[in-house]
Amino acid sequence: MRILLIGDIVGSPGREAVRRIVPKLRRDKSVDFVIANAENVAGGSGITPETVDELFQNKVDVITSGDHVWKKKELYETLSKEKRVLRPANYPLSCPGSGMTIISPESGKKVAVINLLGRVFMKPADCPFVAAEREIEKINRATKIILVDMHAEATSEKIAMGRFLDSRVSVVFGTHTHVQTADEKIFPGGTGYITDLGMTGPQDSVIGRRVDAIVEHFLTSMPKKFEVADKDVELQGAIVNIDDESGKALSIERVKEKIESYY
Predict the structure, then answer these.
(1) Catalytic residue IDs
(2) Which end of the chain is least crowded, N or C, by CB within 10 Å?
């Protein structure tokens, strides 16, 4: 099974990149399944029901999130009803939604996705390592194809999760920093790994926002409105090839695809 993993989608430029590129990649790269981190998809921070529908219409199968998942209250009902939209599994169980889902794509092989949130340099959350073990125990009876979005700031925490889950899941991929890393690999136990998929959105920016406002904020420490940038729009992520029977990763390659013009 070939699975496309899409790095943090930022605002309308990121959504446009998904609209133009994902159907093409599904066709040209024989992609069977698509997972996208979309916690910044609505105006640069948060997710709305409308943006969820738009991503599904553009061939995304599962949406993961992170620390901005609660920014839009209108999403709460969607989280409770739509099993293809995840919030981190290590948020309290009383929160709306789920941190894990099992989907049956057209290929017939079930795919499990787990969403986790890091704790280093992040706001408080339960232990992602304990949450991962809890969700994997539920999944093992259903499928061996398991993908984990580790939404975290610290490189060390992401690598530790990859090593911790090696041989027990198909892929651990990092999101959150918006900067694609060049460390894709397959660990000894057969788990694919990359520290960060990168950002789907405007690359002529500071992690998706207009450069001038961010620089001025750093210079003055004064509050500024951080608007989403709109130039040099690119889809970033990775394609992983997974053995259907064992669930082990056979290969992982980074993806960087530009759109000609956002306007």
Answers:
(1) 68
(2) C
CB atoms within 10 A of CB 200: 34
pLDDT in tens, 43-71: 999 999 999 999 999 999 999 999 999 99
Burial class (CB in 10 A: 0-12, 13-18, 19+), 155: middle
> What is the spatial distance between Cα 90 and Cα 81, in angstroms, rounded to a whole number?
19
Whether the full predicted model's pTM is greater than 0.90, yes or no, is yes
| % of the chain with per-residue pLDDT over 90 | 94
Domains in the chain with CATH codes: 2-258 (3.60.21.10)
- Name the residue among 38, 33, 2 with its Cα closest to residue 18: 38
102 phi and psi, to 5 degrees?
A: -125, 120
pLDDT score, position 140 = 87
